[in-house]
Each structure stands twice: as C-alpha cells, then as structure tokens.
Amino acid sequence: MKLAISGTYSSGKTLTSYALAHYVDIPRTRARTMRELLPVAVPGKTLEQCTGAELIQLIVRRHVERCVHESHLTKGFVSDGSSLQEWLYGAVRVIVGINPNDSVHLSDVEAVERTPEMAFFDEVMGELGKAIKDHVKQTYDAFVHLPNELELAKDGHRPVNERFRRLADEGIAAAIDELGIPRHVVGGTLPERLNQIVDLFGFAPVMTVDEAIGRAQEEYRAVDMTIESDRAWAVTAAS
C-alpha cells in the first residue's frame, strides 16, 4: 500500500503520518520539508520573501526528493502529503499572490492583478501540474485527506491566510478526484484519525495508539522549527 496523507497547511499531515508509521509499522518517506529546504535553496529568506522563481525552485526540489525517497520503498509507504500539495500551494498564488499575506484584504471573488509575470507563473504552474499529476497517478494507491478543521499554526513558517488554506484544500481534493485515486476524508482527534485509517485499510496495529502518538511527538519535536533566516545564518557560520 502506497498511501499519502493529504490536506492543506496545518491540517495535521506530518504528525498523522509519523504516528501511523509507528502504529502499523509501515515505512514513512523522509523527503525534506520546505522548511528544511529553504536555507539551502534560498538562504536567508522565509517563504513569504520568496519570488515566484524561487518558489518554483522549491516546488521542484521537494518533488524530486519525494520521487527519490518513494522509489526506494517499493513495498509500500505512508507519505506526509504528496507533490500535489506543493503544486497547489504554487498554483493558488495566481489568485492570492506570491505572498498570500498581501491579499488578505481581497474578497472571495477577487484575485490579485494578473501582471505579465503572474501570467507566466500561471503558465509554468500549469505545465508543472501535468508532470506532477502523472507521477501521483502512477505512484499512490489511496489518499487519506485531512479536513481543514484545525487552527493555522503560528510558527512563522506559513505565509498563508484562511482563504489560501481553503483554496489549497479544495484544489488538492479536486486533483485527487480528477486522477481517480480513492480519497478518504478522515477527521477528528489524532487517535480517532489513526483508528479510522486502520479500519479503512485493514491495517494491523503493532502497538497502542498512545504509544504510537508518543513516538510521533518525539520525532516531531526534533524537527527544526527555527525561522529560516536564523537557520541560514547557522548554516553559513558552520561552513
């Protein structure tokens, strides 16, 4: 089973995928996250400071890392999201702007100005989407889609507003359905999510749900939450 945990920003994908991997003893893909890629790809910048070209670089880097890590797990895995989310996070910016925080004043029927640069960005996203959808179609057996029901984490890494979150969530779900891949919406608390997933796919737990969550939380606490500009300084100083 090649299973992806999908959803928008702050839907709980990472912790759910960590816990599920422990709970049912399934390998988890370990491609670097955007926050881990930032100080390498665009040193000193946060996501909200990235240009359209830099965002494209980040999307491609993450997609390539996903492909490499997935190719090593031929017998199945659980993935923290999929390349669809990076693509949609880019594509939605055609509506809300390269930095979504700059468009919080717009209504739900308004979009940012379609400049020549934005039109080109839109065209690039469309072409990237073709390649990413092909990969996703050929790779995943099913998706567990986490609803947009949690508060946005205020960790300084997420240049998004609630409209962006909603549009990305709707876009990810629509793309999965377009590809004809089974999509199961699973919400609730983390224990409820894990037990629903086990029931859906007939997984056999190898430990208690509390133990799996505890191990996942330990892993999650080890993720570097430092703001990108601070980590870029540390990387430079150490080299």
TrEMBL record:
InterPro entries on file: NadR/Ttd14_AAA_dom, P-loop_NTPase
Which top-level group of life is the source organism from? Bacteria
A Pfam family cross-referenced in the UniProt record is AAA_28
According to the entry, every stretch annotated as the NadR/Ttd14 AAA domain falls at: 3-193
Q: What is this protein called?
A: ATP/GTP-binding protein
Annotated source species: Amycolatopsis rifamycinica
